Amino acid sequence: MRRLRNVKIVATLGPASSDYKMIRALFEAGADVFRLNMSHGTHEDIRARHAIIRQVEADTGRPICILADLQGPKLRVGAFANPKGEELVEGAAFRMDLDATPGDINRVQLPHPEIFAALEPGSSLLVNDGKIRLRVDTCGKDFANCTVTVGGTISNRKGVNVPDVLLPLAALSDKDRKDLEFACELGIEWLALSFVQRPEDVIEAKELAKGRAAVLSKIEKPAAVKAYDAILAVSDGIMVARGDLGVELPVHSVPPIQKRLVRGARAAAKPVIVATQMLESMIESPMPTRAEVSDVATAIYEGADAIMLSAESAAGRYPIEAVTTMNNVAISVESDPTYRQVIESSRTINRTNVADAIVAAAREISEAADIKAICCFSQSGTTVALVARERPRVPIIALTPLVETARRMCLTWGAHCVVTEEQERFKGAVISAVRAARTYGFATEKDQIVLTAGVPFNVQGTTNILRVAPCDERLVYKAPE
């Protein structure tokens, strides 16, 4: 199955998309990556969905990527004596403390001493996705006396955000550590790390993953935005998690932050996903709003590697329609001449080693001559990521003998991933590339492709050769080694 677009689609699985028929339909509609949300469902639920994805992969003959999204620490208030909660009014005093006594109109438990340890007078506490806002007046190691600046109904276990301070909390809770080990043993390609505040959070997750999965950092806190360059340097990929960003930061600041995060990840040749509320109305409606379509298009114009559906595909009434809509928007945007102008004007020139020079040359040759595809042999996926950073006008065929690498590369912009046999000689690699280009409809025997590879084969980090090859195997066989 050949996609007619370069941006990838991530679809979250859930109650609305948990059986073989639906998961296969989502894949056929355009989903390239399936997200397993570790915040919901038991390990057995996750295991069952994982098995179905792998069955769809086997039945369709195309690698499929799986992303396990770790929950991260959840900060919530305690319970109230009134099960319906209390109505806080602007200007009223309200206290949060460690007392487990059920809350009332004056106070409630906040069972997180780490928050009190970090708070300062003037800090903000946001409750229920920012619908209620409190300003800290005085605070200590076990309390915070606040003034309500935005009122509303506060009720049991509502979430709390603390945007102004760096919290002394690790990104990985005890549950996350168990989930991480479970997911890695199960066999997934990417781990999405929540609550990232500092590069050390990412380093810890990578040490626990031990190379079994790549680690993608979710940028959802102001601290992560401030430390973005350092976090990006140690991450394998990035997710622009706009939900919490829009709660903890002024909502008007999110679009420019999104642009900066996407551009930074592109320059570093690391996959970047734009996520949250992309087609939110399609949870209940078979048609998106025009504003949502424009939002999806903006992420594509920015050059994001992937765009993500959350509740739309996990719990919505129209999961297939949501994926289809994303697929159609992507095809339309990438067919627009303005798209190429925007993408190419934002290309970062990065030439620091032989591999950088090889992939840049591959892209330039493909644009100067009648080339149908750039074919990359890769053990780790690094060369494919470098080619994708160039955002070439022709398709990228990513060939690897490792199914794990093929699956992982499914998140990379433009990569059509093919599992091929190991190669010992360059001529064999050329023949494999030619066959893949023709088999998947990228070229005919009258066309040419560009091939990048590393010699010796099957060694990571050795990209050192580029060749323009005819797609007629008879001519390949006649060519010298």
Q: How would you characterize this protein structure?
A:
This protein has 481 residues and is α/β, with parallel strands linked by helices. Helices cover 38% and strands 22% of the residues. The strands form four sheets. It has an eight-stranded parallel β-barrel with strand order 1-2-3-12-13-14-15-16, surrounded by nine helices. It has a six-stranded mixed beta sheet with strand order 6-5-9-8-7-11, with helices on one face. It has three domains: 8-73 and 171-334, Phosphoenolpyruvate-binding domains (TIM Barrel), CATH 3.20.20; 86-161, PK beta-barrel domain-like (M1 Pyruvate Kinase, Domain 3, Beta Barrel), CATH 2.40.33.10; 354-478, Pyruvate Kinase, Chain: A, domain 1. The protein is built from 18 helices and 21 strands. Helix 1 runs parallel beside helix 12 (319-334).
What descriptive keywords fit this protein?
single chain, 481 residues, alpha/beta, TIM Barrel, M1 Pyruvate Kinase, Domain 3, Pyruvate Kinase, Chain: A, domain 1, 3 domains, eight-stranded parallel beta barrel, six-stranded mixed sheet
Compact description:
This protein is 38% helix and 22% strand.
Q: What about the largest sheet?
A: 8 strands, parallel, barrel
Indicate the overall shape. Answer: elongated
Structural class: alpha/beta
CATH class of the largest domain: Alpha Beta
Care to count the β-strands?
A: 21
The CATH topology annotation of the largest domain reads as TIM Barrel
Strand order of the largest sheet: 1-2-3-12-13-14-15-16
Calculate the mean pLDDT score and round it: 95
Would you identify the regions where 5 or more consecutive residues have pLDDT less than 50? none
State the distance separating the first and last CA atoms.
32 Å
Q: What gyration radius follows from the Cα positions, in whole Å?
A: 24 Å
CATH superfamily of the largest domain: Phosphoenolpyruvate-binding domains
In CATH, the architecture of the largest domain is: Alpha-Beta Barrel
The helicity comes to 25-40%
Count of separate structural domains: 3
Q: Give the amount of beta strand, in percent.
A: 15-25%
Count of helix runs: 18
